[in-house]
């Protein structure tokens, strides 16, 4: 029923649709369409869009309703700079807290990332990339940083996808991710922090290079 999807679950469902690219930047979000798609009341959809507006994923246009907010390159760089600090913190926390079972899990993700790059599976690599960052946040257990990073990830999803699909990028980012895994698995918080920050510095550099190339988003 409509009421069953009201509140937080509906917000999460629309948020994930934006993050996955089901709704593209500047796309109008029509309340009646969302109500049908998510089996929710119009009032619930309206409340969810208000919350997502507060998160920076949606913007309200006077007399035109809501749409997915587009993020400029300069804002994408700023978001990545904030992520640099938070990802470093989470990686350092994970290096302290990681268990033997979690070490094996992270190493397995790293091995799968290597296979994806070797096979040229860009979408698979992109998915594993997100999984690795998510697990590092979860293992680190820094709930506030995790919430902030999840919001930032949603705002930056278009640039992240464009970067992930850029030719040659996975071969650059793979060793950076493996360095994060190695530092966490050896319980070295300082190295984990440095590796995570180094990776985000690389992301910022690549974002600027991809923008200068003028390559269209890989959709």
Overview of this protein structure:
The protein is mainly α and 219 residues long. It is built from ten helices and three strands; from the N terminus they run αβααββααααααα. The chain has helices at 8-19, 31-37, 42-55, 73-97, 100-118, 122-140, 143-155, 157-164, 169-185, 189-213; strands spanning 28-29, 58-61, 65-68. Strand 2 (58-61) and strand 3 form a beta hairpin. Mean pLDDT is 87; it is low at 1-7 and 215-219. One of its GO terms (molecular function) is DNA-binding transcription factor activity. InterPro entries: GntR_C, TF_FadR/GntR_C, Tscrpt_reg_HTH_GntR, WH-like_DNA-bd_sf, WH_DNA-bd_sf.
Brief descriptors of the model:
single chain, 219 residues, mainly alpha, Arc Repressor Mutant, subunit A, Four Helix Bundle (Hemerythrin (Met), subunit A), 2 domains, 3-stranded antiparallel β-sheet, 10 helices, 5% strand, disordered N terminus, transcription
List the helices and strands and how they pair.
Elements: H1 8-19, E1 28-29, H2 31-37, H3 42-55, E2 58-61, E3 65-68, H4 73-97, H5 100-118, H6 122-140, H7 143-155, H8 157-164, H9 169-185, H10 189-213
Helix pairs in contact: 1-3, 2-3, 4-6, 4-7, 4-9, 4-10, 5-6, 5-9, 9-10
Provide a quick synopsis of the model.
The longest helix has 25 residues, at 73-97. The protein is globular.
């Amino acid at each position: 029923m409509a009421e069953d999807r009201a509140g937080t679950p509906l917000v999460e469902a629309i948020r994930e649709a934006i993050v996955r690219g089901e709704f593209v930047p500047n796309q109008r979000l029509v309340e009646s369409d969302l109500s049908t798609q998510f089996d929710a009341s119009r009032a619930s959809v309206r409340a969810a869009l208000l919350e997502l507006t507060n998160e920076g994923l949606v913007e309200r246009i006077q007399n035109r309703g809501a749409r997915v907010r587009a993020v400029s390159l300069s804002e994408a760089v700023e978001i990545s700079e904030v992520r640099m600090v938070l990802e470093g913190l989470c990686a350092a926390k994970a290096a302290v807290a990681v268990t033997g079972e979690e070490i094996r899990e992270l190493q397995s993700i790293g091995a799968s990332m290597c296979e994806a790059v070797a096979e040229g599976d860009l979408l698979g690599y992109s998915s594993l990339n997100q999984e690795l960052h998510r697990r590092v946040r979860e293992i680190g257990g820094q709930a506030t940083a995790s919430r902030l990073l999840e919001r930032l990830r949603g705002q930056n999803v278009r640039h992240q996808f464009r970067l992930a699909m850029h030719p040659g990028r996975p071969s650059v980012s793979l060793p950076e991710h493996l360095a994060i895994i190695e530092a966490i698995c050896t319980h070295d918080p300082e190295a984990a922090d440095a590796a995570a920050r180094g990776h985000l510095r690389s992301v910022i550099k690549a974002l600027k290079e991809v923008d200068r190339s003028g390559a269209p988003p890989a959709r």
